[in-house]
Amino acid sequence: MTKLNKAAYLNHNNSSTQPPGPRGLSLLSSLVEYTFTPIEFLLKSAREYGDVVSLSIGPIRTYLFNHPDLIDEVLNKQNQNCIKDISYRALKGVFGDGLLLSDGDFWKRHRRMIQPAFTAERIAGYASTIVADTSQMLAKWRSGEIYDIHQEMSQLTIKLITQTMFGVDVTETALEILEALDTIMLHYIHQTKTWFLLPAWLPTPENRQAHRATKRLNEIVYGIIEQRRKSPKDDLLSRMLQVKDEDGSQLSDRQLRDEVITLMLAGYETTTNALTWTLMLLAQNPEAEAKLVAEVRSVLEERLPTINDLPKLCYTEMVLKESMRLYPPAWIVGRELTRDCTIGDYYLARGTTIYLSQWVVHRDPRFFANPEQFLPERWEDNLEQRLPRCAYFPFGAGPRVCIGKAFSMMEATLILAMVAQKFRLTLIPDQSIELLPSITLRPKHGVKMMFKEISF
């Protein structure tokens, strides 16, 4: 395990010293660079300045931490001293006090309330729905046709999260939901480029579009809540409707709405992006694709997968892990300190903002040999257990690790196996595949692929 060189730390009790980082005009130039090309800037900063990068302006203290030991300190040991930073809080108007944005005792109560939907037994029960809906999608694909794989995965996963968690079929409104969420994602990017300085009430074109999208999303979500209230089922939303708070009151419609929208976004967006980047990488790496197809055929032959096949789909899981290393759906984490504390050898004041980037750490050659290469085999022999904690954290870490981690991995593994079983996908040449670092890491213009059905 690579150890942190603590001798390189500077003590922040000494106001004349700061961690390395751009200064003066270089800092202003760097902030502009971060605004428009954040991923490239973060990676360059880590390579130029090391494990701790200061991006502070005057009294505004902002740091980028690039070592697993420091990331572990923030997400595990100092979790109780942190809240989500302003880049998350800017989403409050859309996601309210759902699990993504809430803190403290309120977050703990709602986490406990939602956790039963993600037990091993519950997750296993969702497998049949995932397989059935994926089969329907594959039946619609035509050999020789060109599809935007990001759009295809989006429509599938939004349908799956609403069926499994809320007991409703959103086939008729899926495109509306996706369009509304896309608008919100693009608005978020616009907010980052203005450093969250423009108030939401200002009638800019972007704000008006985001308000319309949120209004339509609210209408759909409140309709789902009312449908479940009238006809309860054995699903998460029905149970949430029955839950009573500590004072004996039931959750308000607004609280239910916040959790439904949060789970909707988290449940479809991360899995969609993980599968999109995975299929792109497989098309670019035919040897890995051939190994994947061989495993799927050996395990499944011509039948549909079941939950019991997951332990045998080892290479399929390694492919997904490697894809999420190179293209982590959650590409950066931001925290703001609520009290003074020491992290590593640094004394950090309340109000300090700390950024932790999966994109940066997952490409660190100290922890991953040939980090830019797509090598699923690297995950053999329990690499994840041998890595320093937080050297690989696509789902976050600590108490606030993604509640749907196991569900997402199960879902993605089954879908990937079924696609590989039936189709070979090739990238359409000369297309521009650009990264769009919004709340998650998504493709700016989609990823167009040609599907060719393969015979057994």
Topology:
Blueprint: H1 24-36, H2 38-49, E1 52-54, E2 62-65, H3 68-77, E3 82-84, H4 86-89, H5 92-95, H6 104-114, H7 120-140, E4 146-148, H8 149-166, H9 174-193, H10 205-230, H11 236-242, H12 253-284, H13 286-300, H14 314-326, E5 333-337, E6 341-343, E7 346-348, E8 353-356, H15 358-361, H16 383-386, H17 405-422, E9 423-427, E10 435-437, E11 441-443, E12 448-453
Parallel strand pairs: 2-8
Antiparallel strand pairs: 1-2, 3-5, 4-12, 5-8, 6-7, 9-12, 10-11
Helix pairs in contact: 1-2, 7-8, 7-17, 8-9, 8-12, 9-10, 10-12, 12-14, 12-17, 13-14, 13-17
How does this model look, in words?
The chain has 456 residues and is an alpha+beta fold. The chain has a domain of 120 residues: Uridine Diphospho-n-acetylenolpyruvylglucosamine Reductase, domain 2, CATH 3.30.43.20. Helices cover 51% and strands 10% of the residues. The protein has a five-stranded mixed β-sheet with strand order 1-2-8-5-3. Helix 8 runs antiparallel to helix 12, helix 9 packs antiparallel against helix 10 and helix 12 crosses helix 14. The N terminus is likely disordered.
Shape, principal axes of CA atoms: globular
Placed side by side, the strands forming the largest sheet appear as 1-2-8-5-3
Going by CATH, the architecture of the domain at 1-77 and 331-373 would be 2-Layer Sandwich
CATH fold-level topology of the domain at 1-77 and 331-373: Uridine Diphospho-n-acetylenolpyruvylglucosamine Reductase, domain 2
